[in-house]
Each structure stands twice: as structure tokens, then as C-alpha cells.
Design goal:
Shape: globular
Radius of gyration: 18 Å
Low-confidence stretches: none
Strand order of the largest sheet: 1-2-5-4-3-6
CATH class of the largest domain: Alpha Beta
Order of helices and strands: EEEEEHEEHEEHEHEH
Strand content: 25-35%
Length: 252
Amino acid sequence: MPAPASHELEVIRAVDVTPHMRRVTLNILPGSDFPTDQASAYFKLLFPVPGQDRPLMRTYTIRAQRGAEIDVDFALHEPAGMASHWAKTAEPGDRIQIRGPGPKKMLNHDADWFLLAGDMTSLPAISVNLAQLPAHARGHAVIEITDPADVQDLARPAGIELHWVHAPSADPSGQRLLTAVQGLDWMAGTPSVWVACEFNSMRALRQHFRDYADIPKSHFYISSYWKMGANEDDHKMAKREDNERWETREAS
């Protein structure tokens, strides 16, 4: 498989969407073969490390694309990581290398209803998924936010109910998001389920859906976007090992 393409992008502007979400708009420079229609696709920001050949990579989602512009939303937290620090200090004219974009992970629209769940790291992808649902869609979206002021007005069908979960502190047990999902009305018919969140929350929700509902694999996407106390490389390793254990368990 060929390596993902690399591109250089230039900062156009950076604004605070909410107290803990900052949007950086980047310009795709002339001559780039960056593809169109990439909202919700992921890519990697590349940060050079002095004395090392391999840059640090941090994964983010394209929130929107307008011609040669893309919006990238950064969940802000303390202490700030390399990517969130870059977003907080980004100024027009700054340039950054990226790798990607990779494939989109979208809801299966061939469903009777829809359920999305995640935290502020997956809010950009959830937002795109909601906006692209058919007008008749019904269901729920459960989103953890740091502060009530982080609520966003998301485009969505009238039949999709938003549930904002106030999460001012970390939840090592992974139960907070699960509890919110368990409190929902489970609708009749086949759902399309999309979940992306912290590693421990992902594992709790994955077990819940396995035990509670018979959801076709074609209608079920679940992933961890980060792991509490781990950098991206450590999270990637933990995610791979966890997937292998889960797949072995499911096959037995």
C-alpha cells in the first residue's frame, strides 16, 4: 500500500468556536493534489523533532472543506499537547506539513435510526455525520463536553436529538458516556451506530453494544481517538493490542 501523500498547508485564520474548541482554517497551497470533498476524513499533522528523522504525528479530522480551504477543530485542554499548543498560537501565514487525508468513517444511512456518541475529540466527525444525514433521519447523538459553554448549534435533521454530557474532569472508568447512552430510548428497527471517544469509554461502550443489541457489522463503527495518560504512539499500540484481543475473543 503506498504511503499517504504529504501536503503543505498555510494558516488563514484561527478562532475560538467555544471555550475549549479552536478552529484553524488552512489553505491548500497551489499545485497540491489534495482531494476534494474530504469533510470528516482524518489526516496527520507533522511536527519536526530536532535530531530525529521521523516527525511527531497527531491525528485530526477535517471539519469542513470549501474549495482550497479546510477547517480543523482542536479540542483544547491543559496541559496542552503539541497539536493543541500549535492551534492556540497559530497565526495567518504559518505553514504546516500534513499527511493524508485517510478514509472517511461514516454512518451507514441504510438504517431505521441512528445513534452517535463521542467526546470533544470526535465532535468534528460527529458534526459532519449529522449534517449529512437524510432529512427524515431520527435518533440520538450523545456528546461529552468540558463545559456547558462548549455546546454547539449543530446542523442535523429535526428527528435527531442532541444530548450534551457535562464532563469537567477525566473519567478513568469510562462509565460516564456509557451511562448516558444506556439512558436513551432504544428505537425499533436496525440502528446505525457510530462511536469515537477515549479508550476506556470506547471499551465500555463496545461491550455494552455487544451484550445489548445485535447490530450488523456494516452498521457499527467504534473507535478510540485517544487514551488517558498516553501519547498518540502509546495509544496506537494499546489500540492495536486491544483490537487483537477483541477479535480473538469474538472468533472463539
